[in-house]
């Protein structure tokens, strides 16, 4: 099939490369000429494990290409995906749909022959209706259908998630469009991947509901961790005890400094705004939004307490800046709250992250970036694990003991056990454990 992907951000680029790997002819379009030029030269705009090789192999095979002009390719396309950004709108938290509607308006005149226009971007309920209305207004004679096909990709594992998904959600009332999408997803359909075919508005809401539920699980276990600290319980054992219940499951029950990233913060805000607009507030989602913001702000206070009540004049080694490992994404990362708060209290910050330091430089001032984790800890008073990169899971604790002058390790991801850390001579602080 001939596929056009409008937008080469995280979702568009990963999806386009994977569809090409399925054997389809894919063109990814973006107005950012520098980004397109970089992609043509094999330079990825994001870090995602396996993506560079996947793009290169499909470009070489002639199935994947990049351009800035949608008019050159939309007319011949069977399916056009809208995969542009929908950031939280400043002021009210609603998803900013400017780029979605702009894409719909521009591609309308280019449609030539039957085309399925698919919203891949995360959009509020009713967006597909508006996209359809825009195209009808701009090109009354266009032969098309609008579908919703939300993505469920985890940063750091996106390619595997795309090729081995739990399910595919497709919202569309047209059998003709559904059949086109079945052909597109044929490799997964043959592998009996569940395909949830539903109304367009239902598909749109499903995406928000899924992310909100996962955010609720994270917020819940973080508050249970606080309770564990008060009563002398171990949150990791509580997580295991409840996670073995099939009705609950073990995923997203790891206590830590709060959720971040490109999805959960903006999607919970957008769902909350939509619910209020329709007069049915989702109070449990509102609560987890407030809880998570409080959580991230409280991490600096935990570090201060672990340092004896003050960090003034202390050098703190921050290990990990991104919101999670295997990505360079800094959006809503806990480090964005932790570092400025510590600096405000008089701390000097040294930092290391395997992939996120270039992105971080636009977010922080007066931070010393280091070449590896041990250079980061050298001369520091305290070391703090903020992101659970794999290389932080096997630190040489004896070496750390010699590098960190106050001999304090603050583990905000519960990577280590107290016994192994204290055996090396370090003082250990973690989340929700005695």
Would you give an account of this structure?
The protein has helices spanning 10-21, 33-40, 51-60, 98-108, 127-138, 158-163, 175-184, 186-190, 200-231, 235-243, 264-277, 283-306, 335-344, 357-360, 373-377, 397-403, 418-423, and strands at residues 2-6, 25-29, 64-67, 79-82, 115-119, 144-148, 168-171, 195-198, 315-319, 348-352, 367-369, 382-385, 408-411, 427-429. The chain folds into 3 domains: 2-196, 3-Layer(aba) Sandwich (Rossmann fold), CATH 3.40.50.720; 208-290, N-(1-d-carboxylethyl)-l-norvaline Dehydrogenase, domain 2; 296-429, Rossmann fold (3-Layer(aba) Sandwich), CATH 3.40.50.720. The strands form 3 sheets. Strands 3-2-1-4-5-6 form a 6-stranded parallel β-sheet, sandwiched between helices. Strands 11-10-9-12-13-14 form a 6-stranded parallel β-sheet. The mean pLDDT is 96. It is built from 17 helices and 14 strands. It has 434 residues and is an alpha/beta fold. Helix 9 (200-231) packs parallel to helix 12 (283-306).
Integer-rounded radius of gyration = 23 Å
* Count of discrete alpha- or pi-helical segments spanning 4 or more residues: 17
Distance between the termini: 57 Å
Number of strands: 14
Structural class, please?
A: alpha/beta
- What is the domain tally? 3
How much helix, percentage-wise, in residues? 40-55%
Mean pLDDT across every amino acid position: 96
| Fourth CATH level, the homologous superfamily of the largest domain | NAD(P)-binding Rossmann-like Domain
Question: Unreliable runs, pLDDT <50, ≥5 residues?
Answer: none
- CATH topology name of the largest domain: Rossmann fold
Query: What portion of residues belong to β-strands?
Result: 5-15%
Global outline: globular
Class of the largest domain, according to the CATH hierarchy?
Answer: Alpha Beta
Largest sheet: 6 strands, parallel
**CATH-derived architecture of the largest domain:** 3-Layer(aba) Sandwich
Q: Record the strand order, biggest sheet.
A: 3-2-1-4-5-6
